[in-house]
Every structure is written in structure tokens, then in C-alpha cells.
Automatic annotation (TrEMBL):
Protein name as it appears in the record: Uncharacterized protein
Phylogenetic lineage: Bacteria, Bacillati, Actinomycetota, Actinomycetes, Pseudonocardiales
Length: 123
């Protein structure tokens, strides 16, 4: 039977913002409340330490992605597709920002400096 995965991250204030990555956590199979949950990456979380996510939010834990059960797991394909879509959107924004920045720098440099820059590049 495929492993069902939960998506969760540490609650705000429990760790620094850089450490608030979204972890993949196998759904506990034993009845009752477990003392802790262990993410695919090996990180261990006790009661009240995690915020359960119903969609992708924040950066994913790269180690969880690498160590997660295979793609036969329910929802893992959608999770991966969502992460790729978010990364593509970030890349698109960065390319747009880079083009805008180049335009601003060109305006700041003015036509004389642009010609000087092109002469230096050629020679």
C-alpha cells in the first residue's frame, strides 16, 4: 500500500524563517497519537511544533524530496508539479526583474557611457 504523505512546516517562531521549510511526513499508521512525527529527511517533530499545510507554501525541504517514497505515493506527483510551477514563476520574475534592471542601468549610464561601455567590450 502506498505511503500517504503529509505536508507540514515548523510553526512560526519555533525556528528561524530559513528553517521553516515544508517537510514531507509519512502519515502515521499506528492507532492513537504518536509521541512525535519523523519527516522523510529524518527531522523529528513533537506535538505543537508543526503547521499542517493544505497546499505548497514556502520552500520545500530538499532532503525530504530526495528521500520521499516513490512517485506511486498519493499526491506526490501533484506536490512535485506544484513545486516546479512555483520555481518556474520565480525564474520568470527574476528574468523580468533582470531586464528591468538592465533598462534602468542603461538610462542611468546615458548615451555617452553606453558608447564607452560598447567600445571597451569590443576592445
Amino acid at each position: 500500500m502506498p505511503t500517504e504523505l503529509l505536508l507540514a512546516r515548523p510553526v512560526a517562531g519555533s525556528v528561524g524563517e530559513r528553517e521553516r521549510v515544508a517537510h514531507l511526513i509519512p502519515m502515521p499508521q499506528e492507532p492513537g497519537s504518536p509521541a512525535y512525527l519523523r519527516a522523510c529527511c529524518g527531522a523529528r517533530f513533537g506535538p505543537g511544533e508543526l503547521e499542517l499545510l493544505d497546499q505548497i507554501a514556502g520552500m520545500p525541504c530538499e532532503e525530504c524530496l530526495v528521500k520521499a517514497p516513490g512517485a506511486e505515493s498519493p499526491g506526490l506527483d501533484q506536490l512535485g508539479a506544484g513545486i516546479l510551477a512555483r520555481l518556474a514563476a520565480i525564474e520568470s520574475r527574476l528574468e523580468s526583474f533582470s531586464a528591468q534592471l538592465a533598462s534602468v542601468l542603461e538610462l542611468v549610464a546615458g548615451p555617452d557611457r553606453k558608447a564607452d561601455h560598447e567600445d571597451n567590450r569590443d576592445g
